[in-house]
Design a protein that fits this description.
Shape: globular
Structural class: mainly alpha
Strand content: under 5%
Strand order of the largest sheet: 1-3-2
Distance between the termini: 47 Å
Helix content: 55-70%
Largest sheet: 3 strands, antiparallel
């Protein structure tokens, strides 16, 4: 008998073990308070039972996928029953224990399981909480309850179609009680096994082939393609229709009339200053309309929406996130194909029509709802902020229209222009239609997107696992606190000098570098001339395409050098400020090093490969020593020009420089310097060792923030961090401006990342990520590639830290713990390593959605872990991975063809035998 039972258990062991694991996970979710409905997590309680059902289905599917090829139907069904029994057994035993403890008046369950309350038992059994009170003490002699005592309703027994007790209402039957919940979960696990096995019997390859054949038809391909291109506009229209707009404006008074406005507002004494804010589609009301039928009758249709206030806000946020994702997908799928059917006026009219519509909505929002995103500091009248916002909107629309005029002239650019121009306009207009809660969520997502894009360069492009990335985030935030907060360390005069040095150098340095290089090349006869006319200078000598970022590197290094000179001057005059002395000394060395590797980073053979239109100014330029002297000379000229201008009193009339701009410059410099210095000790490290060292660097910065009280304020941090607005601006205006800065910063980092990826440096990073030894053997300078990856990625994190500090207005060391690095790395991996749209989608999925469901904040790490495991199993390349290289895709196709041909040959051999 025992042997027979042992043999039978061996047949159902896999299913029973899966059931035990499922029951254990359900108990784990109960222990962390998922169904308890504790304060702050009430929205999660209704998700408990669906989560338990989903877990049961998942493990049933996992069992079938592992065993369906080696077992028959009978064994599968038996294991399905065993899975349900095992899961129900663990769940029921645990809840029976909890029920007995809760029924005992002398026992407090929450002393042992803090998250398990009466609401837990009520949610899982269907019994009301007031009926689950502890039983009164029993008589010590008879061991019976008092005769008139109100006893606890036992939640354990199975109840079917009970009016007051039901955990599952399936429509045709209601099931309640703990045993009833266990029964439902067991039946779900049992039925999933044969149903999923039946699904696997379908030839899905043939189904997919038929689907692909249908979708590959020319008309279906065009429909799907144009749906992708126009989807961002469609989502923007839906978003706008759900936003409340003010109709009490001069335009709508003329169009609708006074009587209509009074009816809309339900206010007989409507004044011109009153607001009539109504959405076109009210998500908090019932939508009713009629559909005409062919018979002449009308079919009434009614949608009962009636969403709550927060649900409406979250729905609008989901629309905004969907629009951003649709825009990136449309940009990736835009084709460069000539359209002979659409003439140039038609193409321009389509693009211009959408752009004009967005512009009119922006004008309506600014004027009707008094929303401003530009707060001028020179004009004194507060109403000027609306005028400034309108002027900036007109300028942006004009620039986009001008770009469309030139780009749409080529019919092959029609699709890209149709997506890009209206898409940029809609993305810039979207924040104007958001309230403060939505703006706050978008702010957090945009800042994390900046962090993710910076880490994507280090991890996704160069393959360097950096677990201490939060250190650069903290450096940028605290650097801004040094400029303007209660921890201010940089004097106003020094900050002003730095800003005006930068402003002067922005115009002087390029002129000096170009001018001296041009004179050197003219002297040495290395200029290119047009063959059609003798001694005519070819304009393409001024094209900088292969080295377009060099001037930015020079100016960044110049800022560090200028700051070093200023700090030395302050030190010499007796006012000691050691905050930026060390980064400045390192920065002066860095600028000389970077100038060398950027100005002379091409061999003669590489220069010869460039087309005539793409030759940089430095092709055949001065040698490296002369190039460094040229940079030093440019810095000296910039300093001298600043001194001359300061003597004229121009800077004194301009007043104090913007603390935000000065902080941005210093945050970029200091973070890049920290990244550069971090790169030196880890040049020889790889994989796990590199991760451990960078993790240690992040912990060093975290401990330093806690202990350097004279600089950082220690545990108290910094308060009163300045907003990028003048004093007196409202919180809503400040959040809106910071959101625009974060969006512009994310877009700028994305564009810079794309250009870097396609540059020579980007190809060096790709080789470095694939194999360091082979990359070095092929001539890639690993030192330069690693140092630049760390420095560039760190500078982006510093900019994000500055925006974070400005948004928070106060920063503390716990704001920059290890979890930040883990979160950013998670969104890069889940979005798709090396993919810029993937990073943005990862930020939306891992930051935006949990922000909308604040109750999930305590389970953030749990959700991250679950998503990472799911992504590695289901889609290891990420949600929106980078496109596969052409050669790699061709190799995959040839490999599949080879496998199919081998299969055909083996079948033929079997037939011959």
């Amino acid at each position: 008998m025992v042997r027979r039972l042992t043999g039978y258990y061996n047949n159902i062991r896999d299913g029973f073990n899966n059931g035990l694991i499922t029951g254990g996970l359900i108990v784990f979710l109960i222990l962390i308070g998922l169904p308890a409905g504790l304060p702050g997590r009430e929205p999660l309680a209704p998700l408990a039972l669906p989560a338990f059902v989903l877990l049961t289905i998942i493990f049933a599917v996992v069992y079938v996928r592992r065993n369906w090829e080696r077992t028959n139907w009978s064994t599968l069904i038996q294991n399905g029953a065993a899975l349900g029994v095992g899961m129900a057994l663990v769940f029921s035993l645990f809840m029976s224990l909890i029920n007995n403890w809760q029924a005992d008046p002398t026992f407090n369950v929450q002393e042992y399981f803090a998250e398990v309350t009466l609401e837990t038992t009520s949610r899982l059994s269907g019994v009301e909480v007031q009926d689950l009170h502890p039983n009164p003490p029993v008589d010590p002699l008879t061991q019976d309850f008092p005769e008139d005592a109100e006893l606890r309703t036992d939640p354990m027994p199975l109840r079917i179609n009970h009016d007051d007790i039901s955990a599952f209402n399936l429509g045709f039957v209601k099931i309640g009680g703990i045993w009833g919940t266990a029964l439902v979960l067991a039946v779900v696990g049992f039925l999933t096994v044969p149903l999923y096995r039946a699904i696997l019997l379908v030839d899905w390859k043939a189904v997919r082939k038929q689907r692909d054949t249908f979708l590959d038809q020319p008309i279906m391909t065009e429909i799907l393609h144009w749906t992708q291109l126009l989807l961002p506009t469609f989502l923007f229209v839906i978003l706008f229709m759900t936003i409340s707009m003010n109709y009490n404006t001069p335009f709508w008074r003329t169009v609708l009339g006074e009587d209509t406005l009074v009816d809309m507002s339900n206010n007989p004494s409507l004044e011109e200053d009153d607001t009539v804010s109504l959405p076109m589609v009210d998500l908090q009301d019932t939508i009713k309309f009629s559909v005409p039928l062919a018979s002449g009758r009308t079919l009434p249709v009614e949608f009962d929406l009636r969403l709550g206030g927060r649900a409406t806000q979250n729905f609008q946020l989901i629309l905004a996130f969907s629009m951003i994702i649709a825009f990136m997908v449309a940009m990736r799928n835009a084709r460069y194909r000539a359209y002979s059917l659409f003439s140039y006026p038609v193409r321009l009219a389509v693009i211009g029509g959408i752009l004009l519509g967005v512009f009119l909505l922006v004008m309506w929002r600014i004027q009707g709802s008094d929303v401003a995103y530009i707060v001028p500091t020179i004009l004194g009248d507060p109403s000027d902020k609306f005028v400034a916002s309108l002027i900036v909107s007109i300028l942006i629309t004009g620039l986009l229209a001008l770009y469309a005029v030139f780009s749409a002239s080529d019919s092959s650019n029609f699709e890209a222009t149709l997506v890009l121009v209206p898409g940029i306009a809609m993305l810039l207009a979207m924040p104007l239609f958001m309230d403060q809660y939505q703006t706050s969520v978008l702010n957090i997502v945009a800042i994390n997107a900046m962090l993710g894009l910076g880490l994507n360069i280090v991890v996704g492009y160069a393959g360097l696992l950096d677990l201490g990335y939060v250190a650069f985030f903290a450096i940028g935030a605290y650097t801004y606190a040094f400029v303007e907060s209660n921890r201010q360390q940089i004097e106003v005069s020094v900050a002003n000098d730095l800003f005006y040095n930068f402003l002067t150098a922005l115009f002087i340095v390029p002129l000096v570098v170009f001018g001296t290089t041009y004179l050197w090349r003219r002297r040495n006869n290395t200029l290119a001339y047009d063959s059609r006319e003798t001694d005519r200078f070819r304009w393409t000598n001024l094209r900088l395409s292969p080295m377009w970022y060099t001037i930015l590197v020079l100016i960044a290094g110049l800022l560090i050098t200028v700051n070093f000179v200023l700090q030395i001057w302050v030190l010499a005059t007796g006012t000691v400020s050691l905050v930026l002395i060390v980064p400045s000394v390192a920065g002066m060395l860095i600028v000389l090093y970077v100038a060398y590797i950027t100005l002379n980073n091409q061999t003669e053979s590489e220069i010869a490969l460039h087309s005539k239109e793409m030759r940089p100014l430095w092709a055949g330029g001065p040698p490296w020593l002369l190039s460094l002297l040229m940079v030093i000379f440019a810095i000296a000229v910039a300093l001298g020009s600043t001194w001359l201008l300061s003597q004229t009193g121009v800077f004194e009339e301009a007043g104090r420089a913007s603390p935000f701009v000065v902080g941005l410059l210093l945050a970029l410099m200091t973070s890049a310097t920290a990244g550069f210095l971090l790169g030196f000790p880890v040049l020889r490290l790889r994989s796990d060792y590199l991760a451990i060292v960078t993790l240690g660097f992040g912990e060093i910065i975290s401990i330093a923030l806690e202990n350097l009280e004279s600089l950082t304020g220690g545990a108290f941090g910094a308060d009163g961090v300045a907003k990028p607005l003048p004093a007196g601006s409202s919180v809503a205006e400040a959040n809106l401006v910071i959101l625009y800065l974060a969006i512009i910063g994310s877009a700028g980092i994305a564009v810079l990342s794309m250009r870097l990826k396609s540059s020579r440096l980007g190809r060096s990073w790709t080789a470095l990520r694939s194999d360091e030894d082979i990359a070095q053997a092929m001539g890639v300078n690993l030192v330069n590639a690693k140092l630049l990856a760390f420095a560039i990625g760190a500078s982006f994190a510093g900019a994000a830290g500055l925006l974070f500090a400005s948004r928070q207005a106060n920063i503390r060391p716990p704001n920059f713990n290890l979890n930040i690095s883990i979160n950013v790395l998670s969104l890069v991996i889940i979005g798709g390593m090396g993919s810029i749209p993937g990073v943005v989608i990862g930020a939306i999925a891992l930051v935006g959605l949990p922000e909308m469901l604040r109750a999930l904040s305590e389970y953030r790490i749990l959700v991250f872990g679950a998503l990472l495991v799911a992504m590695m199993l289901v889609r290891p390349q990420g949600l929106l991975p980078k496109p596969v290289a052409a050669l790699e895709e061709r190799a995959r196709q040839l490999r599949e063809q080879g496998v199919e041909s081998m299969g055909i040959l083996s079948e033929g051999a079997d037939d011959e035998q």
